[in-house]
Amino acid sequence: MNRILAVLKKEFIQLRRDRLTVAMVFLIPLVQLLLFGYAIQTEVRHIPTVVFDQSLSPESREMLEAFTASGYFDVTWIAGSYAEVNRMIDSGKAQAGIIFPPQFARDLKRGTPAQVQVIVDASDNMVANQAIAIANAIGLVKSQEIIFEKIHLSGGIPYDVRVRPWYNPDGITAYYMVPALLGIIVTMTMVLMTSIGIVRERERGTLEQLLVTPIRPYELMIGKIVPYILLGYVQITVALLVGSLVFHVPIRGSILDLYLLTLFFITASLGLGILISNIARTQMQAMQMSFFVLLPSIMLSGFLFPRAAMPKVIYYLSCLIPLTYYLDIIRGIVLKGIGFSYLVGQVVTLLVFSVVFLTISSLKFKKKIG
Hints:
The chain is mainly α. 68% of the residues lie in helices and 6% in strands. The chain has 2 domains: 1-40 and 172-368, no CATH class; 47-151, abc type-2 transporter like fold, CATH 3.40.1710.10. The chain has helices spanning 2-17, 19-39, 58-69, 82-90, 104-110, 125-151, 173-204, 206-211, 217-245, 255-279, 283-300, 312-318, 322-336, 344-369; strands at residues 47-53, 73-78, 96-100, 117-120. Strand 1, helix 3 (58-69) and strand 2 form a beta-alpha-beta unit. It is elongated.
């Protein structure tokens, strides 16, 4: 125990002297949370739109008002021809075009389908998907209004589907993204800092000086891990405060559960960092290998894209990423207010990751000593 405390004391002294690293530990998460929290918005609004109204009727103007009132389409240009609509979209000045044919009002009065053509620039997939969905929804709502007027709701409607979104009814992107950013920040810090820090000590020769002392490998490993666990908790606390005070993210679950279950994720991330430090020979190699781990974590864990929509092979590959399970934990506790009983599978998996990573790291460490 005394040997572990001695290593802990050495690590804290080393961290206190390395002010740049400590500053990075506090400032980088703060900057990332503020920057990404404001920048990442999955809800696309104010799509620049060009309109070619050949009907010029009250009916076409009413329909156009429905598009602009949705907040998704901003009419930035009134075109006088199809060619002008094409030119505006080709040049990127507009990402959507709404075209009313000359017979739009006449068809509407006759009761025949009145067509409205909506052209969407699908080179940006996210914008295109939202524009298509909203345009279809507006068309459906306007059609229902006309049907309701005709039948006067006398006999009612055959179906009454009522959608009630839970946990984030207003669809606020920050509520979904900010908790996930905590997982990204902890992964980056734990994996990157641990791997580089240990490799740096090996390059300077201070690690070998420790190895010639009576300290055992597991004692050295515990002494190395504990300070980073404390740093991880400081980061989580700062990030939760920023998320709550700046982005008004509600924390519906138990903070105690969140802190307790976060320990399994921090340990798994640290184990991965130590494993990388055992493989890498230089700090540059450790950095490159850490980024090789971070990129799949960001792309495949469900942070940006839903895992359910991924191909089966990629889906099963994402099961090997610790962040995948932590996102379920933090979103579940913060947004849904669920507790440990709902998250047993994720916790057990993170525990398995921690044991596997730390065991392999310990064995490789012993092998190097030998």
